[in-house]
Write a structure and sequence with these properties.
single chain; alpha+beta; Pseudouridine synthase; eleven-stranded mixed sheet; 9 helices; 27% helix; 32% strand; globular
Amino acid sequence: MTESIHKQRQDDHSLRPGADTFDGILLVDKPSGPTSHDVVDAIRRRFGFRKVGHGGTLDPQATGLLVILIGKGTCLAERFMGSDKTYSGCMRLGIATDTQDAQGKIVLERDWSSVTREKLEEEMNKWRGDVYQTPPMVSAVKVDGVALYRRARRGEVVEREPRLIHIYEFRLDSFDPPRACFHLRCTKGTYVRTICADIGDGLGCGAHLESLRRLACGECRVDDATKLDDLLGMDREALLSRIIPVGRLTMRRSP
């Protein structure tokens, strides 16, 4: 998102007389802890909106950009869900969990001391470009109409079809073993925690996603987002200045 969008928000509303000024999107900087649904519900209850959704789930432990859709803005759900995403994150070597992230139960612990920066980057390189990824059991993907995470809660493990994803950029930002922090830009439907777990398997020591922050969703950037607590502390008039109108978004295309 360009800097000019914020400046033009009020002008856009004034150019649309009679329009519902609360139709559009909010860019929220989600804290760690609440689910994406929790954020949607909090905004709906706080401001009395009837139609509120989001443009792509963030796991509870993840932070960063959550695109909130309000009123007619909900018609843009597929656009945002289908957009490319950018993340920064850290993986923890030597420990694998049943959810592939820090919230799960430890299922394996191995020595990571033989892992060098070169070996790690070699494994990361395997994930660049077009790759097939098998969705994790703890995910919202449905098999026979039932979400995988519901089956996982019952102790079930079912066969999942690998899905084609594309990794545009995957670089190692810092290596302080057993932790490695990275930058990742990818297509929709990419499970970053699964990439970390597979890298751990490739290195022979196991790994899990320790932290994750979404930096961008399509043309929207977390730098333009407002922290959730700050939004919930606003009144409706103040919130209006943070809403990007539907008309402006429909004239723009994701890069």
